Here is the input.
Amino acid sequence: MRKASFFKIATALFIGCLYIWLFGIVQVIHVEADHEIQVSVDISEVTTPDTTVPSSSTTLKLQDMNRPGFEDYIPETTVEIITTPVTTTEDNVIRPPEIESETTTPAPETTTETPVETLPPETTTPVTVTPETPAPEWSESEASGVRYVTENCYSRKKALLGAEVADSYSRGDKVTVTARTDTGYYKLSDGNFIHEDYLTETDITTTTPPETAPPPEDDDNGGSADAGNGQVYVYHADKDEYFACTMDELMAMASDDTLIGYDQYQMVTVENGKFVVTHTWDFNNPDYTYLYVVGSARELVIEAVVAEISDWYEEEAIKAQAICDYTYLRKKNIYGTIPPIHLVTYNYNRARVEKCVDAVLGKAVYYNGEMIQSTFTAATAGYTNSSYDVWGVYYPYLVSVDSSWEMKYDTFKKDGARFDSSYVKQRVKDVLGIELTGSPAKWFSVNDTLEGTENGWVTSVSVGGKTTYGNGKKITGRVIREQVLDFAIVSAAFTVGYDESTDEIIFYIYGSGHGVGFSQFGAHIAAQDMGWTYDKILAHYFPGTEIR
Here is the structure.
């Protein structure tokens, strides 16, 4: 009994001592855990398809929750902290990540990319390549008949701008066309081409062309530009000197910066080796020899602006005129023709004109990518005229537009141009072949005007009770103005009266000029009264166009 008790006591003491010893170890571990310890981890070399990381010894610091974590010290580490509770379920057993070594064969990756097709080996057999057929430079559509040349021009060997010149033509020449191209040319029976701007179906040999900056239907107003031996007389506007050269040499000088025109009011001769220039208005003289003018675009535009529009007009109107003049001259030169230009022979405010020209020099008006026929007129009858009604040629940008603001002023409202009835009677007989009888008060009757506007451009006139003359040609206001009265009235917008006391026919006139396109006085009033700028002015008078 005592032995058994002693054995129990000894066992109890042994267990107590063991407990005390174990408790002390736990406390030591607990205390040491509050302090950082260094754990050296050897990371073997890891090889991936893209990079090789050399083996190294990286020190990781085990810290408590109140201190920065691993990522703050070694952001490049890929160690993942897993907080999922450990269980004994096989599916949830956390296993150490597999580290790929050089001897470890990686598991094949699953990819959704389409496998690259293995190309067959290149063959050495030559491959025959059929050259592409070049696209045609233009296409042709059916067109036939007789056309008349509207002004002196060239035909070209191709239906392209700037193509080689084939032949020359004069105003009124009759040609036969066989096709029309999509580049704007007519193909002639000889296989050459003339641009459509220089051909019309109307026989123009019996009509007199308009006088101010006309479209293709203008001419040289008679006379000869040839100075003899194939030479022409030329004035250089920038150098203020005269010289003679061939027409080809003169045309070769044309460019965007150099323009060429002829002065229809200057007659030139050479006497004793010196150039003699006479300022004259007699440009119907068959012996007239024109003075050609060449110079910088700036100088010629300045000359043209002053000759065509008053230097006191609103600056925006002057700018618009400058763009019209440049467009007109440059377009003609591009097509190998020389348009009229008037050299200024009087004093004017050059500084003011220079300022306006310099502001827009080089700008032109375009329609569908091509320079337009930038016609202009001194004033309108409250609305502009159309190219079709004046010259029989339709341009979508030369149609009748409103310009009623001009009518507020009396500048171009004429009291009337008076003509002795006997003079008118004789002119009607000579030109129209109509014999006038009875009271002069009943000789003329305006039947219609363009778009039926009051006091507008006259489109039909009865003369002696007849509305046609010759071979059924229509009598219009233009026929009366240009042929019967020989431009003695300034516009084809008029009404007709009779003064019995003086036996005079009176034409009451509205506007000035042919009335087509840009109105100079209308632009002046639009800028003065409505504040329009040059671009708005031109957009109004040439609808559908752009300036560039």
